[in-house]
Amino acid sequence: MTGSQIVTVLLLAAGATGVALLQPRLAQAAHAAGEREDVYALPPPAQLHAATLGWDAAAVDLLWSTLLVQYGTHWSEHHEFTDTPRYADAILELEPSYRPLYKYIDTMLVYRPLRGTADDARMARAYLERGTREMPTDAILWLNLGEFEAFMGPSYISDPDEQAAWRREGAVNIGHAVELGALPERALTAASLLTEAGQCAVAMHYLERAYAMTEHPSMAEQHARIGLKLEQLRNNCPSAP
Predict the structure, then answer these.
(1) In Å, what is the CA distance from 134 to each residue of 95, 128, 157?
(2) Is the pLDDT confidence value at 18 over 90?
(3) Which residues touch 206 (CB under 8 Å, ≥6 apart)?
């Protein structure tokens, strides 16, 4: 073997040894980068108005689209995503009545990768409640709040008393949504939940309102179902008038 060939072999051997020594550290660094919390580069919400130079609506659309992309990307990569509240607070600072956020915020918080927590459920509820304060006559937002409280939210809560309280308040909010114009048959859902909670009088209140709202012939089927449930409550509930 010539001298140049020996030098080449030694260089290859040194390179292979270097790769072998560095590979574990590189793999560890790559893994740590994948687990590291994402960098959120926007200023605090209170400073956003100045930062957008008056282009609040455009900034809101950009923030919302970015949030959707980030949420979807993290889901597809099975990577933790905890920045939803930061984006939400920024959006609501610029536009407190931004309806798309209130429509999907509960899903983004509790169905986030890897899994939402009880604190996430409480936070989602707080955002939904804010939506009903910002738009108090929006039946869909009240319905979203009520259904989250009655069904999805309690599954993240471990305390049975807190779960029961959520379901009661959810039923009341579903009933209020019907009064504001949500589908009258939703009153049946509210009535069932309220009856289970021992609040027959409140259940009948919502059913009576829904029954009156479905008197048109086009709603005959819903009218009959609501009337049947109302009659059952009147016959079976101790507090029935």
Answers:
(1) 10, 10, 26
(2) no
(3) 175, 178, 179, 187, 190, 191, 194
Burial of 7 (0-12, 13-18, 19+ CB in 10 A): exposed
Q: Where are the beta strands (DSSP E) in the chain?
A: none
Contacts 24+ apart (CB under 8 A), 42-46: 42/86, 42/90, 45/89, 45/90, 45/92, 45/93, 46/93
Burial 229-241 (b: 16+ CB within 10 A, else e): bbeebeeebeeee
The answer, as to whether pTM is greater than 0.70, is yes
Four-point Cα dihedral 51, 82, 109, 91, nearest 10: 0
3-class DSSP state of 241? coil
pLDDT at 20: 47
In this prediction, residues 106-125 reach a mean pLDDT of 91
Task: List pLDDT tens digits, range 157-167.
Answer: 999 999 999 99
DSSP string, 118-160: HHHHHHHHHHHHHHHHHSTT-HHHHHHHHHIIIIIGGGG---H
d(CA 22, CA 29): 11
Distance CA(164)–CA(37), nearest Å, equals: 35
Residue 33: its pLDDT value, please? 45
Q: How far apart are CA 75 and CA 65, in angstroms?
A: 15
